[in-house]
Every structure is written in C-alpha cells, then in structure tokens.
Amino acid sequence: MPSPNSHQQDAADAPPAGGWDLWFPDAYEISSETVRAFARATRDPYIAYAGRGILDQDSPVPITLLAAPMFDAASALVSRAIPNCNLSRIVHTAQQFTAVSTLRIGQRISLGARLSSHVVKAGTNIITIDTTAYADDTAQLAAVLTIAHSATAGPAVDLDAVADAIMLTGTGPSDSNSYTESL
C-alpha cells in the first residue's frame, strides 16, 4: 500500500516529462551485459549469467536493476529539500516498487522524480519522493521512496576512520591486504 503522502498511482499514469520536479531523459540503457552483471551479483536463478555470449533479447530483466538509477534521481531531490544534507544523518529509509510493465533488454530508460511530501517533526525531515522509469514513453516501474533525516547533530565522528573500517566487497578494511596475502 503506498504512503498516504504519495502520488504513486499518479506517477505511474503521468506522461513522460510531465509534472516531474526533475526529468532525466535517456538516463539509463538496459544492455545485455548490464543484466548479466546484475544477475551475477545477485545470483539470479532466472538469468544465465555464467554463460558466454549475448543474452537473448527475451531474457527476463529484474525490476530491481533500476533501483540505483531511481535512488540517484531521488537523492538529487533530497539535496534540494535539505541544503547541505549530511547523508550520515539519514536514520531511516523505506521504498516500495511497483512493476507497471515488463522491462526488456535494449530499452532506453528516462526517469522522473517528484517531491511528494516534506514534513519536519522533532528536528527530523521526513521526505517522500515518487519516481517513475519510462521506456518508449510508457511507465515501466514506479517507486515511492521515504527518507527520515535527523537535522540534529550527533556525536563528533572521524569519518576518515569510519571509511577505513568499511568492508570493501568482502576483502576487509580498505587499508588491509591480508585477504590477498592468504591467496
């Protein structure tokens, strides 16, 4: 069920480039290699990601493939709504995707993003953003993204130290080479 602040159904029905705060024409192309790489990363059982050659044009395309481009579009609106937004203060996010039409290899995707709601309560920004992905002027995927951002400063954090401790694709801290030494 969409958020009561959302206009997700309106977003799915909206014409391309119409009524959007931001419009990104031809922002993404669904290629055979993109689908294969995504399937390999997610171990998708429906796509022959381990094979060679170009995937069949009728291969299934996971709708979650478009999550990152849709989040990128939404983040542009977040940065407009919250000047100097510190991403480390995002305390909660939620997203809901609705497949409107089947994605196909070879489609060029345009994205629309609209700020549906921005409420500030108790020092926390609660933002709802509607995004829709289009191919050939037809809605393919609609999403509602909700973000809670704390406007109050937390304890001082050494972000460089935190970055060094972040795991990089299972290889250990960024300043560590112990994983490669054991191979």
Detailed description of the structure:
It is a single chain. This protein is α+β, with helices and mostly antiparallel strands. It has five helices and five strands; from the N terminus they run H-E-H-H-E-E-E-E-H-H. The chain has helices at residues 8-13, 32-42, 67-81, 159-165, 178-181, and strands spanning 22-29, 90-99, 108-121, 124-135, 138-150. The protein has a five-stranded antiparallel beta sheet. A hairpin with a 2-residue loop joins strand 3 and strand 4. The protein is elongated, with a radius of gyration of 19 Å. Residues 1-9, 167-174 and 176-183 have low confidence and may be disordered.
Give a brief description:
The protein has 183 residues and is α+β, with helices and mostly antiparallel strands. It has helices spanning 8-13, 32-42, 67-81, 159-165, 178-181; strands at 22-29, 90-99, 108-121, 124-135, 138-150. A hairpin with a 2-residue loop joins strand 4 (124-135) and strand 5.
